[in-house]
Amino acid sequence: MIIITGSAGLIGSEAVRFFCDKGYTVVGIDNNMRQSFFGKDASTDWNRQRLSALYGDKYIHHSVDIRDEKQIKTLFETYNTDIDLIIHTAAQPSHDWAARDPYTDFTVNANGTLVLLENTRLICPDAVFIFCSTNKVYGDTPNALPLEEKELRWEIALDHAYAKGIDETMSIDQCKHSLFGASKVAADVLVQEYGRYFGMKTAAFRGGCLTGPSHSGTKLHGFLSYLMKCTMAGDHYEVYGYKGKQVRDNIHSYDLVNAFYHFYQAPRIAEVYNIGGSRYSNCSMLEAIQYCEEITQKKLDWNYSESNRIGDHIWWISDVSKFQSHYPSWEFTYTIPDILQEIFEQNTERWSQDLPQVKRETLVTSKG
Fold first, then answer.
1. How far, in whole angstroms, is CA 232 from its chain's centroid?
2. Contact indicator for 322, 167 with CB cutoff of 8 Å
3. 129: alpha, beta or left, given left = phi > 0 and alpha = psi -120 to 50?
4. In 3D, which of 216, 220, 223 has the Cα closest to residue 354?
5. Dihedral through CA 15, CA 181, CA 147, CA 248, nearest 10?
6. Residue 163 half-sphere exposure, CB side, CA atoms within 13 Å?
7. Which residue in 115, 35, 128, 17 sits closest to 70, CA to CA?
8. Which residue(s) pair with 88 in the sheet?
9. Which SS3 state, helix, strand or coil, does residue 308 take?
10. Both ends of the chain: CA-CA distance in Å?
11. pLDDT the model gives residue 170
């Protein structure tokens, strides 16, 4: 029995499919707060319905708020020691949104994680607990790296210690995180502490940009999905700061969930892993725009704003060496072009349903 929070979101739904396809029974927890955060276009209800239709009684859905101690306790007690694995992906994921409502951001990200950890400890302490953390726990420390400006991206020197990517030794202290980053730090440290203090099998996976075709991308979160949607639909896109040359590594949701599976098969106590596309799958904003335009054969309507988003990284590439050393059979399967092509092919019909007739015809035509 596996519990997955945020089960209708990008990583949660990928995890549901992954484990149901392997024959596991999955209990999903998702109350569609993403719609509350970002509006109707960001709703994950379509994904929940799809999962229920695909897997029937192998997928048991609960519309529960992870902050609700009473309901979470009841749910855990229902399945009790049959619970082998908890994959916690539910979160408020936006810098900008967190600044508008810090209380909700912190209670969802930090308090919600505490509720899940404590019920795991009390009810199914032998279960593996995997937390979807973020590279934002490092705050703006990466922005102090000595970067070189290239034609389309910022880059680090080949002889720099982080040339392969940023590893887990980078400090998370004495820097600006954004309020979102701070709430995720609290959750990340809780996951570690429950592992160390209580001997629980926990891991915090500090992701870069997580992406894939099931992403309900929106202006404030999910940039590859939202970028492709804007390119396909002819909507305007705003690039914020750093000359559009900021670099992100992007990991496909399948590759990330496969990493979770490897950890579940041979769990460790209180582990922390930087996880992202690494040097295998990364791009700058300008490069991502070029990819989207090439795939859709359309020009993106975009402009540049000099002001960067608070807490945003100029350059982030994850060094996944630590995880690969622990789980050498895990490997990447998706590059940036692979990811964008899949987003394009699998979302045309769904996205077109929300558009006026003229734009709908344009979107379908772009797919050919």
1. 23
2. yes
3. beta
4. 216
5. 20
6. 5
7. 115
8. 5, 131
9. coil
10. 43
11. 98
Q: CA 17, CA 48: separation in Å to the nearest integer?
A: 11
Q: Is 151 helix (H, G, I), strand (E, B) or coil?
A: coil
CATH placement of domain 2-360: 3.40.50.720
DSSP three-state, residue 86: strand
- pLDDT by 10-residue block (mean), the chain, 368 residues: 96 97 98 86 89 97 98 98 98 88 96 98 98 96 97 98 98 94 97 98 95 76 87 94 97 98 98 98 98 97 91 93 98 97 89 60 55
Structural tokens at position 353: 């349903």
Beta strands in 91-212 (DSSP E): 128-134, 147-149, 154-156, 201-207, 209-211
Q: Which two tokens stand for residue 289?
A: 């725009």
Extract the tokens encoding 50: 């799809």
Read off the pLDDT of residues 236-270 as tens digits, 9 standing for 90 and up: 999 999 999 999 999 999 999 999 999 999 999 99
Where in the chain does DSSP place strands (E)? 2-5, 26-29, 59-62, 85-88, 128-134, 147-149, 154-156, 201-207, 209-211, 236-240, 247-252, 271-275, 282-284, 301-305, 315-316
Map tokens 């608070």 to a residue.
310
Domain boundaries, the chain: 2-360
The DSSP symbol for 174 reads S
What pLDDT shows up at residue 358? 46
Question: What type of residue is 53?
Answer: A
* Contact predicate 185/137, CB 8 Å: yes
